């Protein structure tokens, strides 16, 4: 992985020649710092202002991607004109577009019943809690004391086993959270590709520049897809991590600084025509 800043001159070139610029950002850990409880996460006010300026730019689309439920994500960000992708890609809403994965929709009742079982079984574990997100579940264990973590993982494994065996659900591990999703062949990468086709039309690499910034395991699907599409994949976090992303930024502060530089440069370029701008990240 290389620091994203080193790629800046190439990005300027790509933006200049692209008809569409598509900026995809994960939410928690990428734009908003990670906090103990997801409900306490906040998009920094300056980042929100920056995102509003970005979406005003011509031929630039902002896509917010998250494992949160779509409704929750929209409430957290609250900016019009974005594309919002919730539940790891299973639902999407944006200007003139709407999508819900049909298989995931059909499995809602099954997931609801599973949530009831999980909640009851995990009640004795201090700090463990089940978040129902409509199309998926998150089992959080950030607050589980070390002494109870073994029991927690054992119990959860036993709870999920019958669903995995039947092939109706799948499991991914995030930052002290276990994500339980319906087993459908659909992920953050596939939804990004789906959206790109609708925004930019057929895949001709000169027509668009796409970038994806994310910090977690479920973002890996999107990194691989963006690499395949000739875009720029950016991991946010420790550069020693094994990831499909080709570039990295340290944390949400670095993401903000980089997006701010991009915004200034794109604005300058949109008003002055195709020459090199004065701003570097
Ligand atoms: Mg994240």
Query: H/E series, N to C?
Result: EHEHEHEEEHHEEHEEHEHEEH
Point out poorly predicted stretches: none
Helix content: 40-55%
* Total beta strands: 13
**Biggest sheet strand line-up:** 1-13-12-11-2-3-4-5-6
User: Quick one: biggest sheet?
Assistant: 9 strands, mixed
CATH structural class of the largest domain: Alpha Beta
Give me the CATH superfamily of the largest domain.
HAD superfamily/HAD-like
Number of helices: 9
* Tally of structural domains: 2
What is the rounded distance between the termini?
Answer: 18 Å
CATH fold-type name of the largest domain = Rossmann fold
Brief description of this entry?
The protein is 41% helix and 22% strand. The protein is an alpha/beta fold.
Structure, described:
This protein has a nine-stranded mixed β-sheet, sandwiched between helices. A four-stranded antiparallel β-sheet has the order 7-8-10-9, covered by helices on one side. It has nine helices and 13 strands. The protein folds into two domains: 187 residues, HAD superfamily/HAD-like (Rossmann fold), CATH 3.40.50; 79 residues, 2-Layer Sandwich (Alpha-Beta Plaits), CATH 3.30.70. The chain is globular and about 60 Å long. The longest helix is centred in the middle third of the chain and has 21 residues. By secondary structure, the chain is α/β, with parallel strands linked by helices. The site of magnesium ion has 7 residues, from loops.
């Amino acid at each position: 992985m290389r620091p994203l800043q080193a790629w800046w001159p190439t990005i300027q070139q790509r933006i200049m020649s692209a008809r569409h610029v598509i900026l995809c950002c994960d939410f928690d850990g990428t734009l908003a710092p990670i906090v103990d409880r997801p409900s306490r996460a906040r998009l920094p006010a300056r980042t929100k202002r920056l995102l509003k300026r970005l979406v005003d730019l011509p031929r630039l689309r902002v896509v917010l991607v998250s494992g949160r439920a779509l409704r929750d994500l929209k409430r957290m960000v609250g900016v019009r004109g974005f594309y919002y992708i919730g539940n790891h890609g299973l639902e999407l809403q944006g200007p003139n577009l709407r999508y819900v994965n049909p298989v995931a929709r059909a499995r809602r009742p099954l997931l609801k019943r599973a949530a009831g079982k999980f909640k009851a079984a995990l009640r004795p574990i201090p700090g463990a809690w089940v978040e129902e997100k409509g199309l998926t579940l998150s089992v959080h264990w950030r607050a589980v004391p070390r002494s109870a973590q073994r029991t927690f993982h054992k119990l959860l494994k036993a709870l999920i086993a019958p669903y995995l065996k039947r092939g109706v659900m799948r499991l991914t591990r995030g930052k002290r959270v276990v994500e339980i999703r319906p087993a459908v062949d659909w992920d953050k990468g596939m939804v990004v590709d789906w959206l790109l086709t609708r925004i930019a039309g057929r895949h001709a690499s000169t027509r668009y520049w796409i970038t994806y910034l994310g910090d977690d395991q479920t973002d890996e699907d999107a990194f691989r897809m963006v690499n395949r599409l000739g875009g720029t994949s950016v991991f946010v976090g420790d550069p020693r991590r094994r990831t499909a992303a080709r570039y990295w930024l340290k944390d949400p502060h670095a993401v903000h600084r980089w997006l701010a530089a991009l915004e200034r440069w794109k604005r300058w370029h949109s008003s002055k025509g195709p020459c090199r701008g004065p701003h570097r990240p």
